[in-house]
Specification:
Strand 4 (196-201) and strand 5 (206-208) form a beta hairpin. The protein has helices at residues 13-27, 31-50, 55-84, 103-107, 128-143, 163-179; strands spanning 115-121, 150-155, 183-188, 196-201, 206-208. The chain contains 6 helices and 5 strands. A 5-stranded mixed β-sheet has the order 3-2-1-4-5, with helices on one face. It comes from Echinops telfairi. This is MIT domain-containing protein 1 isoform X3.
Length: 209
């Protein structure tokens, strides 16, 4: 990939960070994650290009964008072929402080009109930011074209004094979803440790994420 040896302007710092991560993931054969980062990085570079006045810098940016777009397109074609050949297995590992992963980028390919139920196991839906992230995920399900009628959440109760906040937050989310015709079923377990999301389609096909 083409890279500039000159110091980057502040506006392009985010793009450089995301694209550097894309190249790292690409070199590790983690193509799905790399594609997500390439796409986000390209969008950021396009924003930088729009705000650039210098013709020489514009030319350089266009070349870099073109190179990254070519690589992203190659990865996409490769992944599409893997899917056609039945060899594709998607597992995304999101490391701490990683960027380039939004709910939409991670789940949009699964959320279509055939989706009816979503099962979530997450032991840590407790603190305010965790409740907020869960709410954002639920909002995404409502906004997408899928016809989700039931969301099942299995989590663990907060044993450190924040149980009231946790229960009140989940109750408010349940009521809000109910206003949109979606049922939130809540269950609690003290034995779960891992996170898992399952998407159920009309044809009873289950995708493990």
């Amino acid at each position: 990939m083409a890279r500039s040896g000159r110091e980057q302007e502040p506006d392009s710092t985010a793009a450089v960070t995301v694209l550097k991560r894309a190249v790292e993931l690409d070199s590790e054969d983690r193509y799905q994650q790399a594609l997500v980062c390439y796409q986000e990085g390209i969008d950021l570079l396009l924003q930088v290009l729009k705000g650039t006045k210098d013709d020489k810098k514009k030319c350089s940016l266009r070349k870099r964008i073109s190179d990254y777009m070519d690589r992203a397109e190659s990865i996409k074609k490769y992944l599409d072929q893997e899917k056609e050949d039945g060899k594709y297995h998607k597992q995304i590992k999101i490391e701490e402080n990683a960027t380039g992963f939004s709910y939409e980028s991670l789940f949009q390919e699964y959320l279509n009109e055939a989706v009816t139920e979503v099962w979530i196991e997450d032991p840590y839906i407790r603190q305010t930011h965790q409740l907020y992230n869960f709410l954002r995920f639920c909002e995404m399900l409502i906004k997408r074209p899928c016809k989700v009628k039931t969301i099942h959440l299995l989590t663990s109760l907060d044993e450190s004094g924040g149980r009231l906040q946790q229960c009140n937050g989940l109750r408010e989310i349940k009521e809000s979803l109910g206003d949109h015709g979606v049922l939130l079923e809540l269950d609690y377990s003290s034995s779960i440790h891992d996170r898992e999301i399952r998407v159920v389609f009309l044809l009873d096909i289950v995708i493990m994420i």
